[in-house]
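Figure 3 (text version): structure tokens given as input.
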């Protein structure tokens, strides 16, 4: 009796963990506002346009934040109530924050669960590409109703210039979007 109870409890925990894991891995993305958190305007533009293009090709309604804000405007304005109303009126309920996490291959997904305003206000220290690096890690945070619903890191290795970073990111982004987000 004791062993069957332990076996049942273990089985229940494993089933519960699998159910939670499958809920967090399938985003079922239908629409998204793409927000590049990069300091250089040309990096932000490149990131938002490339991510938006990939999503659009996959049948996901995507809008870059640059269509909502003037060039050079602080992205934290997206968190204001008036901007949220404009974005919602365009049929967008999911926000994606994209940033460079770093230039090492050892980054792992964070367990930190930021709210949208906190994550949007966080600064970014890294440009899209830096000389003498061979690997770039990108952080993708998805938010709905102000809460983070998905977090992923995409690592691009063997990069030698800015164009190589974007090319590898596009290739990996398409794969992950089909597997986990769509």
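Below: residues designed for each position.
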């Amino acid at each position: 009796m004791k062993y069957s109870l332990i076996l049942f409890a273990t089985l229940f925990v494993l089933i519960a963990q699998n159910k939670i894991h499958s809920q967090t891995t399938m985003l079922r993305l239908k629409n998204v506002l793409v927000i590049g958190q990069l300091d250089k305007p040309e990096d932000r533009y490149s990131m938002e346009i490339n991510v938006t293009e990939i999503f659009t090709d996959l049948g996901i309604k995507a809008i870059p934040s640059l269509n909502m804000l003037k060039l050079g405007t602080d992205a934290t304005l997206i968190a204001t109530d008036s901007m949220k109303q404009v974005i919602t009126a365009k049929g967008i309920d999911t926000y994606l924050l994209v940033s460079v996490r770093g230039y090492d291959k050892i980054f792992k997904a964070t367990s930190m669960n930021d709210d949208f305003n906190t994550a949007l206000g966080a600064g970014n220290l890294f440009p899209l590409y830096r000389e003498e690096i061979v690997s770039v890690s990108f952080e993708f945070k998805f938010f709905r109703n102000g809460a983070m619903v998905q977090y992923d890191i995409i690592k691009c290795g063997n990069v030698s210039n800015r164009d190589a970073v974007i090319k590898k990111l596009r290739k990996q982004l398409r794969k992950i979007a089909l597997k986990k987000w769509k």
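Residues 95 and 143 are 5 Å apart (CA to CA).
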